[in-house]
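[Q] Does anyone have a clean structure-token version of this?
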Amino acid sequence: MNVVFFEVTLLFYLVGTIFFLGQLSGRLEEVPRSAFVIAGLGFFFHTLALVSRMIEAGHIPLTSLHEALSFFSWALVLVFLVVELRYRIHILGSFILPMAFISLISAAALPKEIQALAPIFRNMWMHVTFSLLGTVAFAVAFIAGLMYLIQEHLLKSKHRTPLYHKLPALDFLDDLNGKAISFGFPLLTLGIITGALFAEFSRGSFLNWNAEQIGALGTWLFYLVVLLGRVTVGWRAKRAAYLTVVGFAGVIFTLLGVMLKGQHPFV
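[A] Here you go.
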């Protein structure tokens, strides 16, 4: 049943993405209220897909790239719905929903079989959850940084396009960028710590120096520098936006590397 819910979710996210990209391209002056409803319905069916898969598997479904990408997409849409309800930043959906759809369509292309887990692996969900939630926060920081750079360019070039009036103020975007990094870094730290403890418990070594661990440590060091730069040196605005865009690109390349090598991401 989880596959049916998953496919229904894909359809809703596709339709929502079309609506939101229509606003971004200028073909739609305002996104119909139905677009938000469509995203909400997609999130509802996505939640059903995750819950039904958990029931079928008998454990929290975070043990494969398919499940990880699906959870990442789900959490990303959750962030959008919360921010939209709080701040009414409609244009945010034009950036977040396409990313969520790409993540979900990538998950759809991967093996969907539920993997039987040895008892020793059933408690690793904490490591995976912390790591993925940290990645979601960095994705939000990336989107805020990208929107900041676009808006800043429009201001400097004095192009008062329709997009200029749809994008939030620079101060808001910078604040969102900073909060997302401040939220994501502790989560990633917890993900690395719980992952190391799990590796020690299951394999007798805190570090195995595989692609996932090297990528996670590199990401952690990068965002540590960015966070310290914001707090101590005062890196804000344009510089912080560039760094978060570059940093998240590194996260994506690391994930793609793991996928192309066909390695199991978490076990």
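[Q] Thanks! Anything notable?
[A] The radius of gyration is 19 Å.
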